[in-house]
Amino acid sequence: xxNLAYRRGSGGIGIVWLFALSLLPAVLAxxxxxxxxxxxxxxxxxxxxxxTARQLSxxxxxxxxxxxxxxxxxxxxPQLRPLQAAAFYQQAKAVLAHDQLAEAIVLIDGSGxxxxxxxxxxxxxxxxxxxxxxxxxxFRTGQPAVSDLYVGGSSRRHFVAIEAPVLDQGRxxxxxxxxxxxxxxxxxxxxxxLPDGWVAAxxxxxxxxxxxxxxxxxxxxxxxxxxxxxxxxxxxxGTLASHTLEGEPSFVAHTRSDASGWSVLVGMRRSILEQHxxxxxxxxxxxxxxxxxxxxxxxxxxxxxxxxxxxxxGAAMDAAADGDADADAPPRGPRETVRLALQFNRMQxxxxxxxxxLRLAASVFSASGEAIxxxxxxxxxxxxxxxxxxxxxxxxxxxxxxxxxLLNSGRHDKAVFAALFRTLDASSHWHGELCNRxxxxxxxxxxxxxxxxxxxxxRISHYVALMSDISDHAAQKEHxxxxxxxxxxxxxxxxxxxxxxxxxxxxxxEREHRQVEVCCLDLDGFKPINDxxxxxxxxxxxxxxxxxLTGALRPNDTxxxxxxxxxxxxxxxxxxxxxxxxxxxxxxxxxxxxITLDSGAVVEVSASIGVASYPLHGRExxxxxxxxxxxxxxxxxAGRNCLRHFQQPA
Length: 650
Known about the structure:
By secondary structure, this protein is an alpha+beta fold. The model is unreliable at 1-13 (pLDDT under 50).
């Protein structure tokens, strides 16, 4: 019995050890999972911080681009050439009244002296600019630029500025500044609504803090930490373990803007991650000790949900990084990922609002009734307005980066455009009419004004084109010209156009020693048709005769109607050895064919043709027409339905 009892006791102890040993892999796996979860969570948070920094940098760039667009519009106002201080001062104040970013607009000359400052009354004494290096670069390059943080000469407060050149006859004459206080840029950081323990900061190209989402006033104008500045010096973006200016250990992500040279930092206290992992370890330990199987199932479910949520969030972030402002993350999965997704969606909403504000700020450009194209010096389109979209049918995104030649209708040869660009290179201005083609293939005539914008070196930096649709005017002009030069019934050339073509043909024949024949044609049997079937039937016969004449002649010949049933055929480049008899016999044959009227009646006509040849029968248009008419009467007398050449009377 003792042996049995021993064995039972030993079995119980063995089971205990076996259970303990069975827990060892779970404990080791739990420890590994805790460590892996720490790394995963840190990687996730660093990625989140980096993505947040990128989004904030993009939002700042969008706000600066919007402000730069408004500043460029102001810099192009005529009140600056020459300077009309009072008028421009009021215009600048009006712009600032609706501006959410800028606080001041300052006009500066080449020496750095402020000429006008909206923060001071008009005419008040003004100091020199607080960013002389930026001014010198603007006058040197002729390009807009963004300053680092500086102290304003008038307000003695921190500012950053966007500066644009004021061009006068292709040269920089003045500089126009838009002063932005750091606290307004700080609103962009604060609008991101970062989680507790997170901080965002905006640094200029020197690493000086412009603004922060927290404690902005305390640290503005101070440099970032040494280790952070060293890392930023070697990397445009990245993550590192550092500490905040408040002295708290943190993980920091940073990214630098190519547009401004500024960097956005997003950091989170390391204690957040450590506390999170400690809580997770405590919870997991308790679950393993009491509900191991349930804990494993819940952990598996949690992992699946977390990874699915992160995949969805990552896909939304990737789409946003590729420029999709409408990409939102579905708020699914664990609470943290839902919160992150909602935060991301709020950032996307802020981005959409910022882009909407940019479009609103460009209303001066967009609301123009004339289509406007702005292109870079390589003639690649960088912006168009709504009037352009409505006129051409192309969406804005379809033309950005493309050459304006996509509007070419093909109706103008290369010589036209060569002359255009010669004029543009010489005077920086061209004005005229062009025929262009819309996206749907339809053509329109536009009145275009094209200007070349030159930098301080006199080289072209941009092109600006304004187009107005004058198709109705051109069509009306074309219709009037057609009425003036064509017969309204048959649409054949009339006497006026015939005279012009005959004159041109004789000049060409004289140069090239060619023969030209003037053939006067009169219909036989037309009057009875008019009398019997009415004038409408007569008009139908004349239209049919015109069509048959056009079909029987060569492409370079002309059939004209002088009136009634009188026509003239102008045959150019006639072979002197064979003459035009074969062509005219083809005409006679075509006209003899029966004509079926709309009433069902079938009628027939023929023609009598008289031919006068250049230079044999004369060299003047009127003489050739008279002698052709005389020959036509000879054909009438010969029995009609035939042709006769002019013969001098015996």
